[in-house]
Queue: 2 jobs
Job 1
Amino acid sequence: MRIGIDVGGTFTDVVLIDDQRGKIHYTKTFTTPKNPAQGVLNGIEKILNIADASIADLDYMVHGHGTTIGTNALIERKGARTGLITTRGFRDVLEIARVERPDEGLYDFLVDLPEPLAPRYLRVEVDERVDARGGVVQPLDETSVVRAVNYLKTQNVETIAVCLLFSFLNSAHEKRVKEICREIFPEASVSLSSEICPEFREFERTSTTVINAYLQPIVERYLKNLTAMLNEKYGAVQVRIMQASGGAISAEAAREHAVNIVNSGPAGGAVAGAFIGGLIGDKYVMTVDMGGTSFDIGLVIDGVPRISSEGKFEGYPVKIPAVDVHALGAGGGSIAWVDAGGALNVGPQSASSDPGPACYGVGGELPTVTDANLVLGRLNPDYFLGGEIKLYPDRARAAIEKYVAQPLNMTLEHAAYGILRVVNANMAKGMAGSSIEKGFDPREFTLLAFGGAGALHACELAHELGMKKVVVPLYPGAFSAFGLVTSDIRHDYVQTIAKPAAALDVNALQRAYQEMETQARAALAQEKIAPNEIQVQWTADLRYAGQAYELNVPVIHNGNLTRKDIDATVARFHALHQQVYAYSSAKEGVDVINVRLIGIGQVPDVKLPKHKRTTQTARAALKNKRRVYFGERGFVNVPVYERDELKPGMTVKGPCIIEEIISTTVVIPGATAKLDAWGNIVIDL
Amino acid sequence: MPKQTKHADPVLIQVLRYAMEQIADEMGHTLIRTARSTVIKEIKDISCAVFDRNGNTIAQAHHAPMLLTGFELGMRQLRAQFRDEDLSDGDVIVFNDPYSGGQHVMDLVTFAPVFVEAKHSLRQREKSNSSAANASPLLVGFVGSMAHHADLGGAAPGGTQGGLTEIYQEGLRLPMVKLYKKGQEDAELFGILNNNIRVPDKTLGDIRAQASANFVGARRLREIFERYTPAVVQLHTDALLDYSEKRIRAGLEKIPDGTYTGVDYVDDDGLTGKPIKLQVNIHKDGDRAIVDFDGTDEQVPGNVNCPLATVHAAVYYALIAVVDPHVAPNSGCYRPFEVRARKGLVVNPQLPRACGARTQTSQKIAEAMLLALSQALPERVMAGSHGQITNCGFSGYHPETGKRFVYIDIQGGGAGARFCRDGRDGQDSHLARFLNTPVEAVELEFPARVECYELIPDTGGAGKFRGALGLRRDIRVLIDDMSFARYGDRQAFGAFGLFGGKEGAKGKFILNPDSPDERPLKSKGLDKLKKGDVVSLRLPGGGGYGAPSERDPQLILRDVRDGKVSIEQTRVEYGVVIEPETAREEL
């Protein structure tokens, strides 16, 4: 038995997989922001009751979280008091950043880069220098280190980030700084850039290391508290923490790598997407998670969630391997407005849950996407969250009439439908950016939609991008939590090589990989993974000589690397470059910049209960009919089905609506929806 | 007033706008990812855009505004020179001539025409039995990319030497020619480029990266036209231009009518040592703004002459930023503006004047514009910024490869304070939106060591809100016979303060600081360096906003604590005496 818990901003979602009885249960409980661990315990208690299970049967639980732990500390600047130690002359690198102002500030004088998390007076310099070949130009002056650490001690910092130039090539100086910290200031936690992010570009590396330092005490406190509370109530429980990479690690290992585990909730959605894709035989899946305020897009490529290490976190660059989830500020709460030029815009302002969309009737007056869905008959005012929240169509109509229809001189329906089209266009742009820009054609992907609002928009989004298949999985409201349970354990390693592929010493490369592999196997053994459950992947980052950005390609080998294996890796790079950038040249020199190794501890497969297909028609699931607006066809009186009553094998034709407690699926005209053997809604467009 | 657009669907306008912005961004992404020179791949001195068939800019990527608005004149030239039938799918046209719509010689502009098969221009039911289905492809639009190159020949590596006197010294000057014909490189043209460039491996790779970006953009744009049909797309992009025009006009209406004048100075032209006056006179009348340069100096012998495309960019940039910074930026925005620059002024130079360092002038135009507009809209402007671009070209032969290298390092400085906030230390401003080059990227590639990169205390103009600090970057040369060509500015005239705010500190360049060999370097020039020499770039700070006496004491204390403003300066500028102990206390 395993449990996945996703702590979101409002709700904590819990999924329990009962492997022995072949059952899955899910529930929701309110997040407890002051002490999120309490919400986690509440959730466990609730799900154990529902599943009629005992904690004694639990193999492990996987914990993921969106914005609650870490992100909020970052947004509210409530992280730990952080000191930074740098090479002399470079303490301002963190503040100067790359000097580029944010995109939104292209013409707007009031848009600024975020403030550095370590203020200038807590950034101190030490005398040392390593050059671009890893050689020591100036040895580390230890008295300058002692002075720096003592100063930070008098300043009461809780945590220290260390980022010295070229430490990714030679980490000896950073390691020595850590030792000195341990000796004279053992209370402070220390984050070394050569351990957190051993890659070139000093600003991005410093930024990542500083965020790790800034969040580490918070993450550590939280995990300690959670473990203590769990132990007190249930005895020893194996807790794993989801990382942004889409793989989990033990709670003990997570303490050292805070930056890897913040904002890991969205990764759960992509992992679950890969799982469902595997189940139904789709290797290319785009996941979209639409809630009240955000729209998260993820990609599954060849069965694996796409990883990128160029993300930003609240405007701060974070260079760690992370599931490439692109978040847009678009959701059910996005506000529609008409600007001075007479154009209809939706967002980025959101009514969120307070004051909420106009139709909630709790103070919101401005029209939102949810209001538009309600006015167009797509949402059922009496069945929102299963009837828990009553919606007021009159208020939605009044808001759209006043703020959109009248200014644009449109009918109410046109205005409401316009809101949907604009927000859909914005989301489709994001989806195109997440796929096309990375070299993938969205038309080759299955769209997997979840979250409270995903299924309302999925068909139209797919249609916009020419996608042919939409899947609304089981438990669309707790899908990320489901992904947590299915995620493997994962440790990432990287070493910088920076040499032409043609001039590589095969033996040295072999040693680099083997060194990382030894580390990976040891780490996984510590997490009690049996050797036969360990899988190790070798990859490399390559680029044409002179380029600044690499492409990651697998290194296929049989344990003993040969020149042929390297040639094959280079050939893979040429092909990928052609695919992504419409250009490749076998004549040009290729450099190997980094070698990477992923150590994976495989968890047992989750077996979803599979049902026989029924021969019954969907009539049994038909609740009623209602008028729903579909663009050129206007209002159509369409059937409304209850998802819980639909059985595998049943087919319904669009236009129609499928309702469930947490979500509503709009099936557009011309589309056909059927329930597959596992209970997923599969829509062919 | 804009003409009424009939039958355009306001929703589809937005849909197409998003789609085309996405294309421009994707082009920029491709260019940066595949380029070879630091000036493109790290500094991102580039720009990408999408155009309709008439050459109007429809969408731009988030790049340097100087280059973005600067596409306009080039496009006009292209449409004058090439008829539809002169162009084919897969063509890429290149040019860099400042005297026919280009920027400076270092910026290569490329355009690719986009065609669709004639059948896509028809509605579905017309397709089956129409002979038009077999007609020749239809030109529906263009995509364009612009990039600053590491070297294009000429007297100085990287074209960065101040003080050149003729455009012929600044590098290879290309009229509009086809770089690719139907998808194939023009081997003759590539041969000419190869023979005239110091670092052909790099630059030809960068040019191919530009072509890649165009091909990627053209492919995406074609898909949009095929999907919606050319007529529908054109109808809606026309409406998008009208929409932006309407927003700008609405914004202009709110500004009181009148003439607003602003003046700033370029230090010198690198030769004569004389300051160059730039005066803008903004005549705001109803929903229009006419900008003339009466009072501005004549063209100069040195290379700070500013070609028209860049002048337009500076004027447009300042007006959009102040009038409506969130308008959809496209050609429609520019319709309510008119720029009048008499021939022969430094802002409308005539062949063969040199203009490689024109950025010093265009930045000052933007500054003068903001100073003028501050009279009408005090809360929409920024106090004076560093107002220059320090462009350094280090060149020599790499000891490990024996090959020629050109290392371009571009630096800005401190931005001005705003009515509600200090200048953000370290963040760039205005026309050039580039990135710095990481120290580790410099040293991995070039025989140089960066010895510091930091904020300089006491360089931000004092005020209720303080100007951003200037920057210092020291570069040690690790080989003999390295040439150091550069142009910078704001070393004689500091960034202006507003409404009682003080001027920002001026910049300077120093050779071998704090050593017996220390000597000042000219802001614009070329020197030979020997192994061990250190070049210290001290970049100017931004101006303050509002009287220093009104500054929040907490902000004063914070600056002292952070070592951004010294205790001495605090006493002089703010009249506040701080005990060293207080500064260290927790706030």
Job 2
Amino acid sequence: MKGCAAIVLIVALLAWGGSAQTSQNVRVTLVIPQPLFIAAVIPSITVEITPVEIEGPQPFKIGDWHVNIDALTPYRLNSTLVTIDTNIFDAGPEDFLTDCDFSDDFGVCTDKTSLSEPDPQNRRGFGENTAGLDGADFMGEIFLDISSWDVSTLPGFYIGVILFTTTDTTP
Amino acid sequence: MTRKYLVALLVGALGLSLSSGLVAQQNVTIEIGQSLYLDCVPPDQPGDIYYVISQSDIEAPQPIDIGDWGCNVDAVTQYRLNSQFTSFSAPYVVNADTSDFTADCDTADDYGTCAPNSSLTLGDTDPNTRRGTGYNTAGTDGADFFGNVYVNMGVGPTGWDVQSSQLPVYVTGIITYTVTDTTP
């Protein structure tokens, strides 16, 4: 070492001493504005009454219904018929009945048939969370009983709307 | 060249006069106050996640992608990067908890390596919560790690149960990213 310049390096590891750690937070926010979605797959039913229906057993089938439900909550499905216009005496929602024949993806049909009374008489079914599925499909038929109808003006007509509703049944 | 020689001579002469010997000493001290730097919310990275659940998200295969994450690590040591929920709130969504959320790591550079683990669960531990590992990044712009955050809302009776009386419902939480020195 004589005659030479010596350089001493001192490297200081301070504060963490070999166990350095640091962290940072990121906020996560999920917004769920609507947990239930319902779509009517069969948009309308048009039926012309013929002598076959008049002579046949009452009620008789006039069509099918099919709805699809996406849910992030348990729910029930109801359907109610509302009269829009008619010229037939004594024709009303109570003349129409329905059933539920099929359901999938955690949906369950009920045996109720009314289209004119409140829940549970007009309940078509119920279900659970459908996340990851194509939605619960409910299907059934619609029936009409014209035994009380009094058609005096031709052509007689009845126009109504079936409202399908889903309701959150979370306790 | 002439100027360099002059400086050398001056230092040598000073050394001789101070120590009255033939040895000169120059002390150099380098202080490293922090060996790891983590930045998960810079302007060019995803930062906070804000996501609105739509009907198509309910129908989509679970889990669904709700956002990206990205962290930049400057290191003078080898390290690992972890992330997990450290707080969570879902007062109006029955069955929702942090185990419904997962993360992956898609890319890493500058000596960073992604890990295959996906857990973000509050209280879970390494290696389940490990997003990646890396080494000294001196001379580079830091190791960039990028990935996605997912949520699985379940299905059926054990799936999420959103209370419609409280709409819109919010699910919030904080994901904490941590770098840890892994020097043995």
